[in-house]
Amino acid sequence: MSVRQEEMARRLGVDRECPEGADTVSRRGFVKLLGASIALAGLDGCTRMPASNILPYADQPELTPGIPQYYATSMVLDGFATGLLVESHEGRPTKVEGNPDHPASLGAAGVYEQASVLQLYDPHRAGRVRHRLGTSSWKELAAVLAPSTLRARVGAGGAGLFLLLEPTSSPLDSELLDRLIGMYPAAGVHFYSPFARLNDSLLPQYDVSEADVIVAVDADFLATGPFHLRYARDFAARRRPEASRGMNRLYAIEPSVTVTGTAADHRIAVRPGEIVPALEVLLAAIRGTPGQRSGPGPDWVAPIARDLRAHGDRSLIVAGPYLPERARALAHQINLALGNIGRTIWFSRSPLLGAGDERHSLARLVDALRAGHVDTLICVGGNPSYATPGALGVASLIRRVPQTVYLGLYENETARDCQWMVPAAHFLESWSDARAYDGTLSIVQPLIEPLAGGKTSAELLSLLLGMPDAHPYDLLRQAWRGRGNFGDGSDFEDGWRKILGRGVVEGSSFPREQAGSAALTPDAQRQRSLPIEILFRPDARVRDGAFANNGWLQELPDPVTTLTWGNAAHLSPATAQRFGAVTGDLLDIQSAGLTVRIPALVMPGHADDTVTVHFGYGRDGSEALARGVGVDVYPLWPDGAFTAGASVTRMPSASHRTLAITQPHHTLDASKPARAMTLDEYSRLGPRKPSRSLTLYEPQASLPDGPARQQWAMTIDLGACIGCGACMVACQAENNVPVVGHDDVVRGREMHWLRIDWYAARSGEPATIAQPMLCQQCEKAPCEYVCPVEATVHSSDGLNEMVYNRCVGTRFCSNNCPYKVRRFNWFDYSAGLSPIEGLVKNPDVTVRERGVMEKCTFCVQRIRQAEIAARLDGRRPVREGEIQTACQQTCPTRAIVFGSLTEKDGQVARDRRNPRAYAALEDLGTEPRVLYLARVRNSASEGDRRK
Amino acid sequence: MNDRAMIQTILAPLDEPPRLWIVLVAVCALGTLLWITSVGYTLWMGIGAWGNNIPVAWAFDIVNFVWWIGIGHAGTFISAFLLLLNQPWRDAVARMAEAMTLFALAIAASFPLVHLGRPWFFYWLTPYPSTMGVWPNFKSALPWDVAAITTYFLVSLMFFYLGLVPDLATARDRLTGTTRRRIYGVFALGWNGGGRQWRRRRAALKMMAAIAAALVVSVHSIVSLDFSIAQLPGWHSTIFPPYFVVGAIYSGLAMVLALAVPVRAAYRLEAVITLLHLERLAKLLLTIGLLLVYCDAIELYTAASSHDPVERAMHMVHWPFGPFGWLYWTMLALTVLTPQLFWFRRFRCNVSILFGAAVAILMGMWLERFVIVVASLSRGGVPSKWHDYVPTWVDWGILFGSLSIFGLFFLLFLRFVPAAAMGELRRSRFEMLVETKP
Taking the alpha carbons of A108, A110, A114, A120 in that order, is the dihedral positive or negative? Predict the structure, then answer.
């Protein structure tokens, strides 16, 4: 029993196996310790297992070095939790997966969850408690904020004390806040984040799988928002034409091009101002009453109304969170008229603290700040100095407050404006709890001791309560014990251990609430038609800016535009032409009295006379990676609306900025790597003919070792794939794929083993077919025969293997790869990583050196691991489903299927027989082991014809 | 001019080079420094110092390589082919052409070496008894390349040296200075000019010429296979081996002209390298140029009549109208139109026009390789990975640096080695004399 195992055993309360030798370090243990202390000198993070009890997701008797363990935890975004399983190598979290038991995940994880592990090891994270310019300590802060001291400042009632928190659904936070209010009844508690749904006390819950017809009104519900992973899963399940319940049909009505829009059967580009009138016409058409509004409305409304009425209560209108109140009310009325309420959509209480309560809003805090009522402001997370409407001037207001404390991950803009800076614990370092969008309670469990001494929000709150030394673990247990969460009378410890293991409290979702009649708000003022409307949206990669220092996310191509390292003003080709701008030309956009200079990005499919900008860039805190990347558009953002009027001026022709776009060409050429068809075409498809090319040679029946037991293969359903990009980040995390930076992306050197190709059916149209492209593992691989040193060879189980050690870097293989999926280490990308950054690397995968080729391996490390496990179990071969590639595991839509061809009835074999199956660039005869299933569009006219 | 005067003319620069020489050496040495810097930077940083990317994983490196290899063809072509065909006019320029060949080959060989991601493992491309028990992959054209180029270089070197021996003996005998004479003496291998030595040398030269002539054809054929064994449209073409050989000889002859014209003027070799010689070279250039046009046409025809729309698009759309379209048309103008001047005698006999045309053809041939390598790669795979290519300063540094090294080598050659084959010239004169006597 090694020292570390023993340590674990002790922590887990397991009795010593061999007490007689326990106090002496074994020879093996000693050597290991010696090796470790040399290798890890200065990076003690490696062995920082949290001291409190954490329990693996699946119970394992003991920790075996080299065999990873999985722990359940949750990641919270805007207050809503997504359950995760985190892979830990000897106490070092390296990879995040979705928790299949959690309703927001169902086993999938999105880009933020996947990239969160990189943020954990971010060397730019704040690492010390700071007071003004000097280093301070938690103790000193505790002295300043101790109830006795603080009361003297803010009065007995705490009238001068204000807290600004990120939205939270944590019962622990709630309890601590209650106690705090008990202590300081007059204190202000406010919640804010740019996209939080704090105004709604009731949240709409969708059952996407029940809907035959879905109308998304400026709603990117498949790729953003708290339950998007689940919605995407349910949506995709009914995108397969062979599915028993038939295909659903999606209409997307939206100004800018979103992932949901590209996945739609019918996408209608509308200006934001046209949405409310159109919905009014639609409602009237559904009710069958003559429109309250005169005029027939746009011509696309009638067919949608027909389709909706034909499907009655098996339809769904999804109204986007950024729509004006009236548009959302109209959408509700339409759902009501169709009878969807209670079937495909219902409501439940918002788990967010202070939801729907105006007293907890940022606006109230700003009022207090302006009035000078604030003596002590405590910002818990978030970044209010940066991520707030420019017009509010929050940054300067914070600077005027006599005493300010900020708890955050980085020394960012807010930290700079505050006197006290306390490093926050990353969620992978934290004990806490949180609720999902539907109220399901889950645990936040640390995988590692805080690397930089970070503190959780609970710790800061308990410091305010006069308990600076309370450990968050004890706080949490105490709260849970007090609440009696395990109401079935069972023992607390048993229940607690079960929760830690599974991460989710089953059956804890909120009940359905009676939806109010949601009376239509009177159309207060007819919206003036604005010359140019500007839309503010979270960025698909850095969100509100919180992930701006994350290299994986910065280099993740934006869905559809494939822009990396920065943001741009999206506009339609016609509008761009009006300004005489092409992609990269700088525009001056004026709104809310301020002007921002931002490069244009011409986007086919975008609504005319509308500009979409994304938050999160132009940072100037201490986040070195994020600094100076992109443009900050918060100054343009007026308070309270995601749409505004703007004026746009084209800068003189000389000003141009090169945008790091990974895919400039979206038009399919004659080789047609991505295929889409209509339902009619699909119904005419014959059975798929095996595409084996003719050969003069005898079939190779006997390889030297005989063919392997398994023949690995993958199918990717383009009908299901929505192109969200989660697989790209998952692959990057699993396979130690380096980040190359803006300049090298411009040069065409991004390293992603798996990328999403976006294709438009015709030039000038928006790219709507997303095709995950990875090594096709060709049976007749063009790369293999051209390698002069046999560095890329074929394995007996059908993998196209890359032998890094043998590669000399002629790059001939890449030239001969028709799919261009091979990546070359142009520089030593992994050199110069700080020890802390190195911790994120997956120890099962080689970190490649300069000058060698690399590419997708079908996650060969996972295959071999499963094979070894199967062998040890004495059972052979590996069972179907035992191996999931990283991309497959995280895919929200289950578009990727991996398995062995030897399983004749396995999912892969069945998919390969599907008439939709085809090999990309089939004519080349490369015999790929990856097959795609062509996308099928369920367009309305055809569906009608079929009826 | 009698024999003595001719020898005097040819040996004179070995005693005292023209003034310009030292200036040119300085310029080329600076350029060589640029090469050392660029290559050193590349080795230090990695291939990322260049503009290469995915999909354009080969760019200047391979363009330069093929271009230099092509130039390295003229020497042996002139020496070996024309020797076998009994074309005595070749003697005047053969020496220079052979030296040029060697230098060009050495420079060419540096490119595949430097372009490796891990150049320190270059020897893995050779079949050596390895403890890993791994051989090179003989299915790949790159080990063929290594073998072909090494063979060609060694044969060319021997051929060059064999031809040089009598002239080194002449230098030993005619020049002053003990050390110098001793050095020439060592390299002259005891040549005494006896009839038997001449006869045996002649026989050996003919034999080697036969081998070398075959190599001229094989080397660039094999280099062309680096491309044509690939599936990439624009590369995957069966015309490539003869096409590349023709192109190589074309650019090589152009380089001979581009060197012969200024050397002839600077070293007052007008009597040795006469206008007649230059005119013959020009005629040869025209002939080969027309062959190249034929190959171009066949390549285009093959693509046009192909049923593969992707291949057709490469030749009909991406090459002529793609991001490098302007280079494509420049290339065609330079390589196809330029030699048409040589239909006219007055252009063939005008040294300035000859020089200008030679340089234009050299540039055109470089562009031709650029179009084949870069334009094809940049539009080669799936459309999502189409990407253009922009060279960096390092790319330019290596290109111009390699030209400087070539210049430096050539200047040193002119300084220390007789620039024309004195022995051969004398023999030819004698033979002509015998033949013309009634």
Answer: negative
- A747-802 pLDDT per residue, tens: 999 999 999 999 987 777 888 899 999 999 999 999 999 999 999 999 888 899 99
Looking at the predicted structure, is the pLDDT value of residue A41 above 50? no
Contact B57 A924 (CB under 8 A): no
Beta carbons of A670 and B137 less than 8 Å apart: no
A319: part of which helix (H) or strand (E)? strand A315-319
Cα A696 to Cα A73, A780, A925, B231: the distances in Å are 57, 15, 14, 20
Please state the pTM of the whole predicted model.
0.89
- Nearest CB to A822 within list B54, B134, B308: B54
A559: number of Cβ within 10 Å = 24
Please give the mean pLDDT across all residues of chain B.
89
Instruction: Give the model's pLDDT for residue B130.
Output: 83
Which residue from A minimizes the CA distance to B62?
A810
Q: What share of chain A is helix, strand, coil (3-state, %, to 5)?
A: 30, 20, 50
Cβ–Cβ of A664/B57 closer than 8 Å? no
Q: pLDDT tens, A481-524?
A: 877 656 555 678 888 888 888 889 888 889 888 776 555 555 55
User: DSSP letters of A180-246?
Assistant: HHHHSTT-EEEE--TT---S-SEEEEE-GGG-SEEEEES--TTTSSTTHHHHHHHHHHT--TTSTT-
CA distance A113 to A229: 11
C-alpha to C-alpha distance for B3 and A934, rounded to whole angstroms: 81
A817–B383 CB contact, under 8 Å: no
pLDDT of A691:
58
CA distance A458 to A162: 16
B386 at interface of A, judged by CB pairs closer than 8 A = yes
The per-residue pLDDT for range A226-276, each reduced to its tens digit, is 899 999 999 999 999 888 888 999 999 999 999 999 999 999 999 988 898
d(CA A918, CA A596): 47
Mutate which of A789, A822, A848, A854 to test chain B, going by most B C-beta atoms within 10 A? Answer: A789
What per-residue confidence (pLDDT) applies to A690?
Answer: 63
pLDDT at A8 over 70: no
B137 at A interface, C-beta within 8 A: yes
Angle at which helices B351-370 and B325-332 cross, to 10°? 140
Above 50 in pLDDT, residue A703? no
- Please tell me the distance in Å from B1's CA to the nearest CA on chain A: 54
Record the tokens describing residue A614, joined without a space: 């994304």
- Work out the minimum CA distance from A821 to partner chain B, whole angstroms: 9
Subunit contact B383:A921, Cβ cutoff 8 A:
no
Nearest to A417 by CA among A460, A386, A450, A444: A386
**Cβ proximity of A884 and A898 under 8 Å:** yes
Residues 62-121 of B with CB under 8 A from A: 112, 115-119, 121
pLDDT band at A153, cuts 50/70/90?
confident
Buried b (16+ CB within 10 A) or exposed e, A486-512: beeeeeeeebbeebbbbbbbeeebbee
Contacts of A921 in chain B (CB under 8 A): 382
Between chains, do B117 and A851 touch, taking CB under 8 Å as contact? yes
User: CA A297, CA A279: separation in Å to the nearest integer?
Assistant: 9
Element (H, E) at A84: strand A80-89
Chain B residues 41-60 with CB within 8 Å of chain A: 45-48, 51-58
Does the beta-carbon distance from A850 to B118 stay under 8 Å? yes
Contact: B117, A786; criterion CB under 8 Å: no
| Contact assessment for residue A280 and residue A242, using Cβ atoms and an 8 Å cutoff | no
Say what the ipTM of the complex is: 0.93
Q: What is the mean pLDDT of the segment spanning A614-621?
A: 91
pLDDT > 80? residue A736: yes
